[in-house]
Amino acid sequence: MAKKKNKKITQSKSNTIRPDTKNIFIATFFIVLGALSIFAETDSTAGFYVFRLLKSLFGNFYQIIFSPIILILGVLIFFKEGFSFNNSRFFGLILYFISFTSLVGSFNNGYNSFFNFSDLLVSFFGNISGVIFLIMIFLFSLFLMFRISYKKILKKFISYTPELKAIKENISLPKEEIKEVKNSKLNKELENIKNLKLELEEEIKKVKNSKKEPKQLELEEAPRKILIEKQESNGFFKKMKDSFVVDKEDETKINITKKEEKSFIEPKYDSWKLPSIDLLPNIGGNIKVDENAIYNKQQEIVEKLSQFKINVNMTGYRAGPTVIQFRLQPDDGVKLNKIENLKKDLTLALHAKSIRIQAPIPGEGVVGIEVPNENRQAVGLKEVISSKEFNNPKFEIPIAVGKDVSGDIIVGDLTKMPHLLVAGQTSSGKSVGMNGFIISMLYKFSPSELKMILIDPKMVELSIYNGIPHLLTPVITNPDKALNSLKWAVAEMLRRYDLAKSKNARNLKEYNAKVKKDEKLPYIVIIVDELADLMMSGNKKEVEGSIARIAQMARAVGMHLIVATQRPSVDVITGLIKANIPSRIAFTVASQIDSRTILDKIGAEDLLGRGDMLYLPTGVLEPVRVQGVLVETPEIEDVVNELKITIDPDMLDNLYDDSIVNGKSNTSGSILENYNGDQDEDPELIEKAIKIVRESKKGSTSLIQRKLGLGYARAAKVLDILEELGIVGPSNGSKPREVYE
Fold this sequence. Notes:
10-stranded mixed β-sheet, flat, 26 helices, single chain, alpha/beta, Rossmann fold, 741 residues, 4-stranded antiparallel β-sheet, disordered N terminus
């Protein structure tokens, strides 16, 4: 039995190929194949088949890609001891063929070969990134095949280059020298501290020994004990003053005024870096339509109108991201209102959710029937910002709006609008559109060129922008602070007019061209996300008045409004506001009445939601149907975070101006601005009293006592101040005073 087993073992050993025999076979095969690829003639049978095979695998440059590496491997396997063709070298050879062939293909368009993956890699990574990726794969394949140490190669290169060697020697200091440098620096610092200590001790001795008559000292000479004497207040509009008195032992007196409140200093943004466009995703692209479906719908429109004895000719269509506009020309004698009255019948015939009829299309001489696109597409902000329309130098403040029914990009210029009113019900895309306006401005301007005031009574829509340097103040959610910011804007508008007048400038652009760089004024955009909540806060008249004043006059000095509301009713969008804000955007609304309120036309009730809007800029007779840009929360966060990173940490203390929302520090533009009477009363208390009497429609001392918890004398004093301000009328015996609107 043992003999049989031994025989089997010897037989199995004899069947296996020895490693050196295997290497000799592979080396011989590689050398012969390499020689054939170089020297074979195509007219021979073997040469012809080798030529065709290598050309299909590696292309026309097969003698450069294939032949050298195969010959080198064959020679090394044959002559170098320990060099064998294992799995890692086989994998490295495949990577070499792919990377080298793809590199050749990336620089030769239309290069046909099996191993050419350049088109796939370039479309995935881009041109430059794809080439870099292929080079890295090429170097990695050489490492797998030949175990090349790139670190050693780099060291040898540095050692053979005199300039690099000198730099290396200068950079790498010995550890002992580094310790000596550190110790010498520490010794110098200790000596400086000792000298300062001695100087301070000498100064203290001089102060103690000096017994001169009282004199005025600077702040640096302030002695040991300081007593504070407070002066009486002369009113809340005057600066408080304190005097500091030294202990009698030193008989030295210092009289200085109280340190003034720290004024706001605008940070400088000389080298501002705009956000990267790569933060925004690639959304949208070419609009796709089904030609057969288009033809069928055209026939359905013609047939349905012919049933009502209306003959039309279809002249074409325009495909947009949201709707397809079918254009038709009615025969002579057909009244357009007949076609408009058949909207419901056409909706039924086309199996559509809703349609909109534009009769006629201005300047075209045809009627447009807008039907929802079955292949609805979103419009990406990146596509709009990268377009030539957005980067048109004629636009001073471009804002991304979206794409129209023809698929053309629509961009608005806020300076030409010059104010914008936006309305739409919940989930219509209004807030997304507002975010699109804000982000598009952040991509265009530095903080020194454009500032914003964001008012968000809903507290959740715009708070994501807190911390960016483009804001004049943190996002405002309090109605009282919102009113103060609008009053501040009125005062700032008047101040800018005075500055423009001093330079004989008609607008902000002319003013900035005439002053120095440090004196240039930025654009200011005030964005109100929910006007209805602000109007319902109890300050409707003041809010409406401030918005109207800004809308009437602020355009010339570079201040613009974007006002949005969910409720486009007449008590929110009043006649005064509509008259002064000419540009409008209507998202989906509930009824024709709401559509007329915002646009003075019907049509917004037929919109499809999710960014579908009617855009009516200044000077346009008919609104344009547009699909708004899509900006989602992660994209906004990425842009905001990049802006926050760009800020120098030293600027954080002066990033925002608190006086804008602080009623005490800014009464300019408010109802207390021209009041010159008794100013010892708290202005916040006066504002509260005004709010109380206006809400109750009557003014009396007992009412103010009860609501504000004041005594009779102080309540009567507050009521007298309200009378001087023109809020309430004179005393009328025992009856409450009349409240003036």
